[in-house]
């Protein structure tokens, strides 16, 4: 659990043990103790409680998602941390622990830098101390073996100069190495390492001190701003530009100082060579004595210098503190729940309850391309509205016989009354039915209206002129191969042989008969006009089931024989753009011809504006 490492995968793992609070639960794959806290004990008693064992990575991700870090004000270096959760005390502990860990980690980072400096000085002291011991031992041995106590005045003066120059050279080399270390850190964009190296070196250069201090301050400002800003932030980009400019200026200054140090080192080397040449002319004993003393003095000076730096580094490490502070401990910002907020939820619920249905209806009205209501027909077309037919389902053929007390039967009665009213008189006997396309219930409407007219006592004949796709014979159970209109128009049989009598009184059926190859030519024959004229004299109503307008053009031929045209539109099926055919057909009406629109297939239960009609069968006693 501490590392998140997967040790083993278990396919079937189940725990079903009863333990008391505080009792150890031990299983082959899990060992734990459940200890209720005071906050849990104070909760109301319930039948069951549960807890979740989270994966460390998942838990870290959850808290990262809830944590909000933002400055108290623009460009401020004080940050406000906020976390939301169902248990306030848990979030408070998380924020306090997070900040304590953050401050501790900052101190650890600073101590790590100081420790590296201290370790480096310690290693150098060990090396210099060893060199010092060897040089002092060599000097003592030389004096003892040669019996020398002091050298001459000239030798002392030369050795003193060499010692001074060697000391200057050593300090200059150390300073040059410091310049190179700082320059290398700057070139690798490690500003913190450059500042740390310069501080631990102890080189006195006010100009570089000020420049490095400015760089450290700019770097700190950028780190504070980067917590709440992204890389596109203008202030962050300005700080990056200033940091880059300061770093380049430091690199140029350090480069010049290194070159100046090299020139000074070359001059000191030349001077040392000149003095050593002069000393070489001294007696050998004095020369060796001077050399040993010089080495001993130089090692002693280096040792004292490193011991001083070691003391400074140890003091800095002992007194190191973090510059990150916790201003206020985490606390509950508000006693009211952050969520859910009852008033907002109620308001959203009311708005959603009003807007969603309204939006759905508006969207459906905008996107629906089919006819939705009778009012829509009245708005789009100028043709009078005859009525509407209820949805009877796909299996119903003759509604009056199969569903005598249904809404669809009552709707046919209502349309029959309206039809008798508009088709009253001897010049209103031939009624043609058509539609825009197949599947709109044209044949269903004309067969059922013909049956209603016949049952009301009117002698009615139904002629099926749709000889390309005949279906009327199936409504009455006739044989589709029986002689019909096509046989009569071809002269293959007489009218008496072509007509058929169903079980409905006063109703005669002239089906399409065998499907011909020249349906259009048959309807254009004079024999068709003679047939309509004879039937007009013999029957009260002649119902013509014509083909759809949108598929074939037969109805434009039959239109010359009809007195009344009924255009059938199917509810939520007929496309709105097909209603233009109604207007076109209305313009073709001549004389006393009339055109009416009939809406078929209306579901009274699912359509709100017709819902009150779903109980209309109640009135069909």
From TrEMBL:
Judging by the UniProt lineage, the source's domain of life is Bacteria
Q: Which UniProt keywords apply?
A: ATP-binding, Kinase, Nucleotide-binding, Transferase, Tyrosine-protein kinase
Q: Does the keyword Endoplasmic reticulum apply?
A: no
Q: Which residues form the AAA domain?
A: 429-560
Entry annotated with the keyword Kinase: yes
Query: Known InterPro entries for this protein?
Result: AAA_dom, Bact_polysacc_biosynth/exp, P-loop_NTPase, Wzc-like_C
The record, for CDD domains, names:
BY-kinase
Give the protein name, as stated in the record. non-specific protein-tyrosine kinase
Which species is the source of this protein? Hymenobacter qilianensis
């Amino acid at each position: 659990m501490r590392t998140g490492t997967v040790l083993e995968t278990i396919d079937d793992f189940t725990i079903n043990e009863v333990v008391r609070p505080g009792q150890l639960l031990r299983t082959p794959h899990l060992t734990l103790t459940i200890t209720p806290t005071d906050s849990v004990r104070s909760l109301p008693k319930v039948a069951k409680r549960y807890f979740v064992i989270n994966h460390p990575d998942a838990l870290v991700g959850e808290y990262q998602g809830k944590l909000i870090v933002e400055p108290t004000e623009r460009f401020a270096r004080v940050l406000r941390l906020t976390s939301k959760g169902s248990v306030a005390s848990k979030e408070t502990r998380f924020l306090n622990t997070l900040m304590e860990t953050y401050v501790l980690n900052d101190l650890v980072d600073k101590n790590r830098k100081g420790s590296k400096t201290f370790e480096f000085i310690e290693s150098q002291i060990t090396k210099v101390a060893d060199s010092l011991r060897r040089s002092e031992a060599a000097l003592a041995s030389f004096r003892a073996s040669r019996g020398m106590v002091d050298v001459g005045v000239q030798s002392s003066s030369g050795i003193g100069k060499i010692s001074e120059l060697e000391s200057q050279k050593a300090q200059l080399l150390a300073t040059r190495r410091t310049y190179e270390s700082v320059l290398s850190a700057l070139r690798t964009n490690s500003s913190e390492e450059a500042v740390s190296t310069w501080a631990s070196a102890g080189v006195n250069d006010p100009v570089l001190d000020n420049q490095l201090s400015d760089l450290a301050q700019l770097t700190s400002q950028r780190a504070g701003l980067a917590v709440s800003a992204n890389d596109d932030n203008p202030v962050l980009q300005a700080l990056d530009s200033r940091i880059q400019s300061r770093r380049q200026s430091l690199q140029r200054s350090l480069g010049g100082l290194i070159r100046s140090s090299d020139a000074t080192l070359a001059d000191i080397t030349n001077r040392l060579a000149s003095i050593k040449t002069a000393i070489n002319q001294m007696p050998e004993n004095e020369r060796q004595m001077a050399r040993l003393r010089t080495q001993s003095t130089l090692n002693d000076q280096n040792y004292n210098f490193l011991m001083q730096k070691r003391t400074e580094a140890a003091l800095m490490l002992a007194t190191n503190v973090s510059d990150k502070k916790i201003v206020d401990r985490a606390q509950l910002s508000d006693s009211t729940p952050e969520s859910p907020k009852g008033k907002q939820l109620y308001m959203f619920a009311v708005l959603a309850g009003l807007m969603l249905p309204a939006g759905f209806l508006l969207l459906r009205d905008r996107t629906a391309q089919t006819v939705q209501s009778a009012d829509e027909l009245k708005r789009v077309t100028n043709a009078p509205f005859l009525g509407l037919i209820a949805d009877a389902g796909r299996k119903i053929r003759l509604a009056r016989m199969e569903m005598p007390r249904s809404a669809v039967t009552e709707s046919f009665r209502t349309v029959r009354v309206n039809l008798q009213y508009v088709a009253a008189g001897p010049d209103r006997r031939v009624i043609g039915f058509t539609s825009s396309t197949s599947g709109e219930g044209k044949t269903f409407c004309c067969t059922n209206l013909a049956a209603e007219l016949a049952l009301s006592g009117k002698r009615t004949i139904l002629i099926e002129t749709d000889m390309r796709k005949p279906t009327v014979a199936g409504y009455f159970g006739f044989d589709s191969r029986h002689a019909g209109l096509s046989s009569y128009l071809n002269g293959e049989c007489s009218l008496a042989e072509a007509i058929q009598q169903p079980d409905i009184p006063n109703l005669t059926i002239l089906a399409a008969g065998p499907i011909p190859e020249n349906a259009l030519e048959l309807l254009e024959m004079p024999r068709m006009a003679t047939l309509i004229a004879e039937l007009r004299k013999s029957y009260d109503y002649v119902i013509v089931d014509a083909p759809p307008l949108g598929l074939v053009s037969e109805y434009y031929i039959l239109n010359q024989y009809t007195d009344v045209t009924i255009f059938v539109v199917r509810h939520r099926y007929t496309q709105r753009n097909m209603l233009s055919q109604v207007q076109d057909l209305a313009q073709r009406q001549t004389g006393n011809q009339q055109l009416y629109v009939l809406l078929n297939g209306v579901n009274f239960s699912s359509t709100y504006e017709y819902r009150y009609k779903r109980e209309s069968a109640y009135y069909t006693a």
